[in-house]
Amino acid sequence: MQNGLIRTARAWHGLTFSRQRRHRMNGSSSRLRQRGSLSEMAIAIPVLLLLGLSTLQGSLIYHGKSTLNYATFEAARTGAVHHGQEGAMRHELGIRLAPLQGGDGSTERAATAILMARTLVENRLQTRIRIVNPTADAFSDWGFDDPDSGELMIPNSHLRHQPNSIGSTSGVTLRDANLLKIEVTHGLELKVPLVGALLAKTLMLFDPENTVFYAQNQLPLKSVATVRMQSPAWKSAITEAADHVAVAESDSAALIEEGDTDGAGEGNDPTGEEEHGGDTSDEQADGSDDGDDLEPTDGSDQNDGDKEEDAEDEIACETSWDDERYQSADEGNWWNPLDWGDEIKAAAAVVWDFFSGLVAGMGEQVSDLLELIKDPSVMLDIAKAFIDDPKGVIEGMLTELGADVDKLMQCGPGDIGQLVGQSLNPALAIRIVGRLAGSTRLGRYADDLEAREVCASFPAGTPIWTPEGSVFIEVLKTGDVVDARDEQTLLNAPQRITATHGRVAEGYHRIETELGVIEATSEHPFWVQGKGWVEAKAIAWEDPIATASGDVVAYSNTYVEEATPVFNFSVESTPSYFAGEMGLWVHNAGPCRIPWTQPLPNFPNVTLRGIRTPNLFTGSPTRTQSLLRDRMALHYNLQSNSNLPSNARWQAHHVIPFEFRNNPMLNRLGIDINSIDNGIPLPCSSGTCSAIHNGSHSRYSAAVRQFLQDVEKMNVSDSVKRDVLIRGIEESREGLAKNNPPLRNSDGATVQQWNDVFNDVLEEYAEET
């Protein structure tokens, strides 16, 4: 019995243990299955997410390519009717790429998208337009000089009646030369997280030439379009487009070489420019106001209650501060253009209307001002300055201008801008706005505007004496020959025109003589016997004015206040010529400095262009020394040395040497050391004309170093220092072209000779001021 109980107990305990063991094993198996499911999910979810994100990114790329194809075609159509000009095509391309910037169907979002797209396409590192056809060789076969436009162009009319032969240089017929074929490369932003960055980094390994795009998380998309030209193609337009592409590619290569691709394309901020009209069509409303009936203010008070005097003091306003576009109810986010609020849009509307009115008041002489304001980075800076209190900013500006603030503020920004342009000091107004916005570009524009205002000139229709007879001044162009006189020897001789100048003057002096009448701006110098050079405004009764064959006596001098197109030019060797029916001896430019340009003796097909301030002071310095040579070869159509005999090879000389690329003043002023305007091609071999460039030039560099130090010590603004540097570069280019002084010389006189050149520049500035 006892043994049976023991066996039963053992069996029971064994059964219980077996059950417990099976229970533990079942629990463990369940947990293992659960862990296996979690592992599968951990693998599957990222894979599915990656596939989903990849599909989304692929869809966006397809959408981007389709949009770019359409935009490229529309850009080509625009170029076909604008002589193949890249600027017109780039403008149209920006409009047509607006869908890539998103939107919600509202007019405000559409306008913002257009502005963002136009901003992006202006960055030539991100968007490149290459004109594949017509080629430069096609102009050699079919081009002709158009006397009206001064352009070398390919004929576009009556093609069926033109010869269908194949050009010997280009290998194409005239009809084929009238096909415009463009290739657009645009960096599409890879917006999908993870996938975009992964795709960019992967492609960077297989496509290093486009590293600049991939480093900015962009995918370079290409599209080609071909259309028939609807206007004659201009060689200058084709060359300029090729120049821009070459510079973009060179800059890209430089950035890749220096590992600075992360910063490529910076400095193009979207703007708060308001596009009124609410659509995405080609025509962009500028918000400007005509205000044709506005009268200048006289600052008089209106306290007597007389209705007639009140009527005289009233201003006929066509704009008002009550306009809903100037009102704001919320704040926007500067860093997200798609979330710009009413406050930002209102400030931008005030800025745009004010400057539109300013242009309407001043006329064509500031027609390029609106193009500057359209630059998103400039508009954004100005709008930021205006955002807190637009009316207060305008009032403060008018106070500085000495205007009747209460009277002018009765009108809106458009009318105020027009009155400032008509009656006050527009250059000072632009400078004030530039100071408030911290915009150096507006400050430079104001400086240039003041210089334009004092540029001595003659009205259109003034006869200029030439060896072939008299020619109206507005018809003359660079390369034409005019009769001139040497001030030292007083001998007359024909001289070439090296540069031309035109503007709109506020008025002119009408000078009557015994043999006829001549009109000139106030500052234009005439040679008065016994006095020398005398400005037009200072010519007195019975002053004997020198002529080509004697002199004539002035009988009267009257100022005519009337907006008038005026013109002038510079002469190659002797700065004077003969003007008017009487052949009065006049100076070629007066106080207006026209840049030095001249053909180079060693390079018969090269004429150095006048220095262009925006191209020299870009604010984006390039650091690769060979870039200047690439730019000059393309711009001046110079061959590679590998294709030239040893006695015809050349080198690109930096006028301000490349060794000064890290000079603090030059960096502060924003000079591009590799700008074409800071360069001159010089022969490598010995020659009798231009200076020889063959290795280092320590003595020349020493003189430049001293010049830079002297400029930095000047107690003047940076804008003035830029102007002095331009003069120094011009004088250096002239000396190098004439080999006087020489660039390299074994004797010790070279440093002093170049010091004299630069000291003359500083002394000339000191005399003017």
Automatic annotation (TrEMBL):
InterPro entries: AHH_dom_containing, Hint_dom_sf, TadE-like_dom. It holds the Pfam family TadE. Residues 258-326 are annotated as: Disordered. It comes from the Bacteria. Gene3D superfamilies: Hedgehog/Intein (Hint) domain. Residues 39-77 form the TadE-like domain. Residues 280-316 have a biased composition (Acidic residues). This is TadE-like domain-containing protein. It comes from Granulosicoccus antarcticus IMCC3135.
